[in-house]
Amino acid sequence: MPTQFDPPSGTRDFLAAEVEKRERAFAVIRSVFSRYGFEPLQTPAFERLDVLLGKYGEEGDKLIFKILRRGEHEASGEADLALRYDMTVPLARVAAAYGSQLPTPYKRYAMGPVWRADRPGRGRFREFVQCDLDTLGSTSVLADAEVICAVHDTLAGLGVADFRILLNSRHVLAGLLEAFGVPGELGPGVLITLDKLDKLSPAEVAAELTERGLASSTAEDLVSAMTAPDADERIRAALKPSEEGAAGLEEVDQVLSLVTAQIPAGRIEFTPRMVRGLSYYTGPIWEVVADGVPGSISSGGRYDHLIEQLGGPDVPGTGGSLGIERILLLLPEGVPAGRPGRLDVAVTILGQEFAARAFAFAAAARRAGLRSSVYMGSSGKLGRQLKWASDQGARWALIYGRQEEEAGVVTVRDMDSGAQAVVPAGELADYLAGQAGAAPPPGAAG
Amino acid sequence: MPTQFDPPSGTRDFLAAEVEKRERAFAVIRSVFSRYGFEPLQTPAFERLDVLLGKYGEEGDKLIFKILRRGEHEASGEADLALRYDMTVPLARVAAAYGSQLPTPYKRYAMGPVWRADRPGRGRFREFVQCDLDTLGSTSVLADAEVICAVHDTLAGLGVADFRILLNSRHVLAGLLEAFGVPGELGPGVLITLDKLDKLSPAEVAAELTERGLASSTAEDLVSAMTAPDADERIRAALKPSEEGAAGLEEVDQVLSLVTAQIPAGRIEFTPRMVRGLSYYTGPIWEVVADGVPGSISSGGRYDHLIEQLGGPDVPGTGGSLGIERILLLLPEGVPAGRPGRLDVAVTILGQEFAARAFAFAAAARRAGLRSSVYMGSSGKLGRQLKWASDQGARWALIYGRQEEEAGVVTVRDMDSGAQAVVPAGELADYLAGQAGAAPPPGAAG
């Protein structure tokens, strides 16, 4: 492919097979979210620049695609708009704009492209789909548990084979710092380092904690408690004396108890060493990991002040995000929802005098719910036209020439077996519907 | 709504009901296009600036949203990318990039937002959905007729009540200029003025033609032939002596004959006064008008050199575009595909000790294909919770307190009638599925 025809760096063209695979996955997601009572929200691709700037930290601001002012202002070189960077800032704006018009709690999902001027790389794009679900306006742990259940059902519905949900709470982490006597000013740094326990060895993490100024005995106690085979028990025991730790534990256990009807045992577990990096979380936090995939395929948590920080009203919130581009890579290529190929019924045309009849046959096939089109090339030869039918992946080819015209029939050729049936022209739709029903071509759902 | 929370000028936020209405329409469109064997194509939201610049004329270039360079280049005030302005230039790029990987002919549809920095106004947006279908690589009038049939079926499938397809050909127009002796150099201007016959009176059009330099007798002959009650016959007679005119007539009649199986008589008519303004059309041209809507709701035609002009390969093409934002305004608000409201089953919680059971009941309802969620507010009062269920548009509320727990049942309240049924807890999913099946709540499809 010559470079000048490539899509811009970090973006992709999706041809038919990929669009269909992606759309099937999106349909599963929408269906599960809807069954949970989440409703869709769509906001524009761009926002006013001041709505986005300063919301993603200094590094984030650099990754925002900015849109030049127009007309006489273009020469200024200034930007006034910017492409959506995530789905959360637009949610905060919508919550501020529509306030009481929204239901309470406001359970919404948003699925669509976001744009980040990141360095493109394997699996990292500048245009990618983000898929968020959030509940605004409820402080109840029920809302946290519901989001986790919906994410679980979505991943199961998509056919993701092996995944586990890691559950923790910001209160557990605060309790841990308290229980292990970590000085207050070291807390945030210690949590950032603990977050690396899934990548670095315990010794490496302990060393980094010491570098951060933690007493080496404390660092070793902490790391050893969090990585021991009986970590769950040791951490629970350590947390009990801390008021915040005990509250966090209670929160985690409530979520675990609420989701038992929906999530099979063993698929969700209390993971005290799991520290979501983002500082805005205030309660339960979780992430989903899958075999063979580094990092998480979904994550989320409670963020009771974020919407206000982002310019919205002061409402509690909890939610999560599906790493849909990663998840799509995990899904099996096979089991396409449609017969591979573009047509069910390919209609040949053996002379322009038969063109109108061919059109009518294609229309009859479509009435039977089948994908159908006529031959549009320049060859009048049946062999060439059947080759086209085969290239299209057609299940049947229709043949109609002088002989068929005189007999008032149409010849229906089964492209797999080569068998041909002669069908009265007026009964074609019924015949095809019957054949399609007998061995349903899933393409008919197209 | 305070201005600072509005979406950017010319763009819109879509809350749930609007998203659902739009998505239902998009699903109809995709389904019809797919039955005709058109396949989806998705390209990025932005292209390299040089791919877009110079493709839409000087006025068009001014309406392109340009994206500022990033990082160290941001200060230059220069743009290197630009938001998609239509679906045709990306199609030309894709045809150049993927060439032989694409089927022949390449029948594709593209549906998604495009962005134009137009002055926003009633029904005119800066972000709006464009929906195109095109066949590249066929010179056959079959391809033109197929596009028109697909557009017809789409509009019928969407429920657009009264629409008519106006059909003409660029060759007919050239033949007309020849037949009426319009000097060659006046041709393009004369066509632009004739295009106004749907807005201006015949006298006004004749006057404008004269201003353009046409002899006033010629101007009057031309306008009178095109607006006479027997215009069809008069134009056909006038065209016969012109070779190009006769060829155009033949083309129009071929399309009319091909579509008879699909399009009811009277819904498509030869309209010699119809002149699509765009200069790139080379063969059949058409537009769809609907009662009570100014302008067209869909239009298209053959453009055998456009793809090459836009930077693609030299392939013939024909296609059309649905004015989807206008069409959406035409569609009846009623007949929502789902029960209005967010939930089918609202689960009350009469005390935190019942929360896990409530979650399990909601899960059972979802297994029955119903939209379901639990109460997440702070009130423990049944009345308040039933009010919430009602606000959600729920069909049933589930009630489970001490009494139900002891009896191993759950109370199912019909929110319309107030009638209550007592159902064994283990049979809830079956019971709800049966109730939903008995009087299907379309929301279940959600």
How would you characterize the overall build of this protein?
The structure is a homodimer of 446-residue chains. Chain A is of the alpha+beta class and 446 residues long. Chain A folds into 2 domains: 3-45 and 84-330, Bira Bifunctional Protein, Domain 2 (BirA Bifunctional Protein, domain 2); 345-445, Rossmann fold, CATH 3.40.50.800. Chain A contains 17 helices and 16 strands. Chain A has helices at 16-35, 49-52, 57-62, 88-98, 141-158, 170-179, 187-194, 202-211, 216-227, 231-239, 243-258, 306-309, 324-330, 355-367, 382-391, 402-407, 428-438; strands at residues 39-40, 46-48, 66-68, 79-83, 106-115, 127-136, 163-169, 268-270, 284-290, 298-302, 317-322, 345-347, 372-374, 396-399, 409-414, 420-424. In chain A, strands 1-5-6-11-10-9-7-8 form an 8-stranded mixed β-sheet. In chain A, strands 13-12-14-15-16 form a 5-stranded mixed β-sheet, sandwiched between helices. In chain A, a hairpin with a 7-residue loop joins strand 9 (284-290) and strand 10 (298-302). In chain A, helix 1 runs antiparallel to helix 5 (141-158) and helix 5 packs across helix 11. The longest helix of chain A is centred in the first third of the chain and has 20 residues, at 16-35. Chain A starts with 15 loop residues before the first helix and ends in an 8-residue tail after the last helix. Mean pLDDT of chain A is 91; it is low at 335-339 and 440-446.
